[in-house]
Design goal:
This protein has 95 residues and is of the alpha+beta class. The chain has two helices and three strands, in the order E-H-E-E-H. Strand 2 and strand 3 form a beta hairpin. The model has no long low-confidence stretch (mean pLDDT 93).
Length: 95
């Protein structure tokens, strides 16, 4: 399934959620099998990602996790992800 990089949003109220991976950053690494990227996943942002952010899209079932900088994690408007961003499920049972 191909997922659009356009029209994503931050899921509010997720800061207190825990993951059995130890962190949402580690969850992303475990689920994708990739190394943590050097840049935020949000299109146009070159900052270092510091957390695995919960994001959602109207055409995608459930919440997803992407590497994100602190500033982009506070954006309330819709945003676009960089092409090729790995977007694993936020399902805690996949650790």
């Amino acid at each position: 399934m191909t997922v659009s990089s356009v029209g994503w949003g931050n899921k509010n109220g997720t800061a207190i959620r825990a993951c059995s991976c130890g962190s949402w950053k580690q969850h992303w690494i475990n689920d994708t099998g990739k190394s943590w990227p050097s840049e935020c996943s949000v299109s146009g942002c070159c900052s270092s990602p510091v957390l695995g952010a919960h994001v959602y899209h109207p055409d995608v079932k459930g919440e997803r996790i992407v590497p994100m900088c602190d500033s982009c994690n506070k954006v309330s408007d819709k945003f676009n992800l960089k092409g090729g961003t790995m977007i694993p499920s936020a399902n805690k049972t996949t650790c």
